[in-house]
Please model this.
Amino acid sequence: MTIKKIKIDIPFKASAYRIVIGRDLLAKCGKWARKCLGNDAASLVVVSNPTVFGVYGKLVEESLCVEGFAVSHFLVKDGERHKNIRIAESALSFFAENGLSRTDAVVALGGGVAGDIAGFAAAIYLRGVPFLQMPTTLLSMIDSSVGGKTGVNSAFGKNLIGSFHQPSGVLIDPEVLQTLPVRELTAGFCEIVKHGAIGGKALLTQTDEFLSAFPIKTFSDNHTNSIFRSEISNLIAANVEFKASIVAGDEGELSTRLDRKSRKILNFGHTLAHALEKVTDYKYLKHGEAVGYGILFAAELSKTLALCGEKDVKLLNDVLHRVGPLPPLANIDPKAVLEAFRFDKKQLDGSLQMVLLKGIGKPVIVAAPSSTVIRQVLTKLLQKWA
Model:
């Protein structure tokens, strides 16, 4: 059974592109790429990681070559610690060595790391060349491939070096998820739960019902199930549509916007997430796992500040627990985490902004509460998560 393609138009001020979601699209990516880039594009550089490229590289390159593209590839090791300015510079050198021109393009094939490196390098090479996103992880499908944020990590914080550079198109083939490890699925579903928390009970309920019907541990066993195929595509599409609706109204994440439709709400759970990644040197937690902890922290802080009721916090915890166990956080120093907050990109006029909840689907952007309150909530939770 072939799943119907779902096309989503995103009316950005600076650019517009189309996201296609459907089964077996990766094998037909050449025609899609040509349609996105037009006839002037001659050369493509595929940015991927060794594992993903080993599975899908030949399939993708052959499809692209059939459409007349000259294709080369640049491989990046997986993991947030490899998403840095040094690797980005290596990618830029590779582009130059292969004669990439302004009418050519970069293709991201992989998860968020490959996508961010490809997008950031494409944004600054020759002051910007087109790029395409072909995400292969659940997290990158519903989050990092949509919206045009690109960046790299540094010693002073996560994604503090970057730019907005919209792709010319995004191709999502849910079939590639069958080769995804369980931890990667958990990481992706943490971001999906985040979308439900800020998007509303309908999206959160859709996520809960999907995880109830198809537990993550049995995920790989369900790929021949037509109902599963339909539901996972529908869930991905719902998350993409939600994020696209937010990004389309606030493409550049204006610093002055504090309303419920501000792009900042997509940072729910990310204040603690980025701090945890930094204090563990980007080696211990996957980004989505860190976001899972960040969701629990933000929800608990919202309850402590009497913004959000116990019932909604419990609902959020219950759904999040369905995504699978998160790595324990033993020996994490609360002081180091609080210090890492200082490098958060949501700092404005010397004050940290936090995204909290007044209820499911009711995000609110507030100035961070007192360090005493944050420390108390954080210390209590870190002891629980050890």
In short: The longest helix spans residues 226-249. The radius of gyration is 20 Å. The mean pLDDT is 92. The chain has two domains: 6-179, 182-385.
